[in-house]
Amino acid sequence: MNLALLKDSKGILFSTEFLLTIILFVLIIGIVASLMVKTDEKILNSIKTNNLESYSSKVADSLISSPGSPENWEKLSNFNNVIAGLSIQNGNKEVLLNTISFKKINTLKSNYNTLISKNIFNNEIKSSISIYPLNKEINPIIMGDEINNDENFNVFVVSRMVKCDFLSELAILSLNNENKNENYLNNLCNHNTLNNLSHENIEEYNWICKEFKISKKDLQYNDYYLIFDEESTKISGFWILDNIKRISNDENNMNNVKTDLNSYFEENLENNSELIFYLHCKIPTNNKNKFNCVLVAIPKEMEIDDLNFSYFTFQTCQFILKTTYN
Ligand SMILES: [Zn+2]
C-alpha cells in the first residue's frame, strides 16, 4: 500500500518535472522561432526596399532619356500598351538627352494612372512626379499620388536635372539680337525696296525683321500674340506689323509684354485665304542685347494662366520621382 503510494507520488513528481521541461523547451523554441521570423522579415523588407530604390531610379532615368514607345505615343487615345518616355526626338529622330517634352508631360499628367501606376508599377506602388522650373516665372507641374514624407519613412526620392521645351514649339517667330538685320539687308524685308519706308541705317537703331505666313484656317484654330520679355519693354524699342498687301510704317511702342494680334490678322485675312506678314523691330543699338521677342500661335483649346516670354524658351527644371509602398 505504502509502496503503491510512493510509486504514485514518484510518478506525479516525474511528470511535473517533465511538464516543466516541455514548457521551457516550447518557450525557447517559440522565442527562437519568433526571432527567426523577425530576422526574415527584416531581410525581406530590405530586399524589397533595395529593389524599389533601384527600380525607381531606373524608371526616372528611362522617363527622361527615352522618347517612349510606340513613337509619338502622346498622340494616342489608348495608353494600355504604352511605355512612357518624355524625351524629345529631333527631326533626325535623335533623342535629345535629358530634354523633356512639355506635350508628353501633359499627356502623362492626364493619364498618370494608366501610364505610370499601372504600366510601370503594376498598381503595387504609390508614386508622384514633380517638375520644378528654376525660373520662377513658370509654374511647377505636379502629378500622381499624394505621398506624405512624414507618415512613411520608406519614401524614395529620385531627383534629376532636365531641360523642358515648354511652349517653345508654339513660337512661329523668334527674334533677338542674334538675328541682326541680315533679313533686311538680304531683301527679306518688304520695306527694303521702298524708299520712303526703308529702315534708315541710323546708328542709334538696329532693325530686326522677319516674314511669316498665316492662313485663314490657322486663325480658326489659334490665338496669336506678340510677346516680349520683361527687359525688352524697358529699352524704348518699336515694332511694326504689316503684310505684303498692306504695307505700313506705324511704329508701336515695345512697352507691353503681351499684345493680342488676332483682330489685326482677322481684318487682313478677311479677303485672303493666306498672306505673308512682316514683323519689323526697331531696337536701340545700345540696348540690342536686351531684346527678345516671340510671335506665338496658341491653340484655342489650350488654357494657360499667365503667358509670359519664359514659356517659349527651353528651361532648366528639377525632375523629381517619389515612390513608396501602397
Ligand atoms: Zn523690316
Structure in words:
By secondary structure, the chain is α+β, with helices and mostly antiparallel strands. It folds into 2 domains: 55-167 and 314-325, no CATH class; 169-303, no CATH class. Helices cover 30% and strands 31% of the residues. The protein contains 6 helices and 16 strands. A 6-stranded mixed β-sheet has the order 3-4-7-16-5-6. Strands 8-15-10-13 form a 4-stranded antiparallel β-sheet. Strand 11 and strand 12 (252-253) form a beta hairpin. Helix 2 (102-110) crosses helix 3. The longest helix has 64 residues, at 2-65.
Quick description:
The protein is of the alpha+beta class and 326 residues long. The chain folds into two domains: 55-167 and 314-325, no CATH class; 169-303, no CATH class.
Strand order of the largest sheet: 3-4-7-16-5-6
Helix content: 25-40%
Stretches with pLDDT under 50, minimum 5 residues: 1-6
Could you describe the largest sheet, including whether it forms a barrel? 6 strands, mixed
Bound small molecules, deduplicated = zinc ion
- Helices and strands: which structural class? alpha+beta
Summarize model confidence as the mean pLDDT: 87
The percent range for strand residues is 25-35%
Number of helices: 6
Round the Cα radius of gyration to an integer and report it.
35 Å
Number of strands: 16
Spatial separation of the terminal alpha carbons = 72 Å
| Number of structural domains | 2
Taken from the alpha-carbon principal axes, the silhouette is elongated
H-E string: HEEEEHHEEEEHEHEEEEHEEE
